[in-house]
Fold this protein.
Amino acid sequence: MTASAEPAPASFVVTQPAATLQLSGIQTSSITATAATISWATNVPASDQVQYGKTTAYGLSTTVSATMTTTHSWRVNALVRITTYHYRVLSQDGLGHLVVSGDFTFKTSPHKP
């Protein structure tokens, strides 16, 4: 009698690709003569930073937050009254993917603090 062996069923491991880091809801709020709050969200936990200045060369930045979160907010201070500021936000996920927003602007208030 000849024994025939059935092939073992194949096993597969299905892995989902990591979500692509995305920025959303980029906005400024609480704008005064000398400060503004910049906030945004990411779809996966990420670090954050804001680059800002009087031109698209920016020149100023916040520190990079080491806290990985999906809601991001920075208060930028020591701004000049009645001045238009350019800014962009940066976030990096745990896999090292960095996303940089486009350029946004806001204008500080004329009212003295």
